[in-house]
Write a sequence for this structure.
């Protein structure tokens, strides 16, 4: 994030990332940075939709309440919600600490009419810009399972650098 914003923009894939950001803007998607518990619970509702579609187990609602309670007062996280009209159609959580921003949780309504509006692209672009404004020098797209080729491809289109992580299981 140490480059000028226009250089960061140019590092994104034009056919999907920049197109998606522009599509979201033209379609009337707006982004709100939120910090109250009610907005966290809105994100949790979106996560329920996303995780069910993926066939994945749900996170407990207490996780999001604790993130809000423990990290909110320190300013170590940011919650962004994407709206189309009055409807929250997507959201992300980004942790910010020590000049790093880490993209951590993301969810969208799984209805085709909202997915085609590209809310995740606009959410990420907003989060990247805000993190840069607050002095972050790195935006980390977080881990992706090797088996999830679609997610890894999505992240690669943002001009990211992939690094293997070593894991130890006990």
């Amino acid at each position: 994030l140490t480059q000028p914003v226009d250089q960061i923009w140019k590092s994104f894939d034009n056919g999907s990332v920049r197109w998606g950001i522009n599509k979201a803007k033209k379609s009337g998607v707006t982004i709100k940075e939120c910090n109250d518990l009610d907005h966290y619970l809105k994100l949790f509702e979106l996560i329920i939709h996303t995780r069910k579609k993926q066939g994945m187990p749900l996170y407990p609602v207490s996780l999001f309440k604790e993130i809000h309670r423990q990290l909110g007062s320190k300013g170590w996280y940011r919650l962004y919600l994407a709206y189309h009209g009055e409807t929250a159609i997507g959201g992300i959580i980004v942790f910010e600490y020590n000049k790093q921003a880490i993209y951590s949780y993301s969810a969208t309504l799984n209805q085709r009419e909202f997915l085609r509006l590209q809310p995740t692209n606009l959410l990420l672009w907003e989060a990247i810009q805000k993190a840069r404004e607050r002095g972050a020098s790195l935006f980390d797209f977080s881990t992706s399972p090797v088996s999830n080729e679609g997610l890894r491809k999505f992240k690669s289109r943002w001009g990211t650098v992939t690094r293997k992580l070593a894991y130890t299981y006990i």
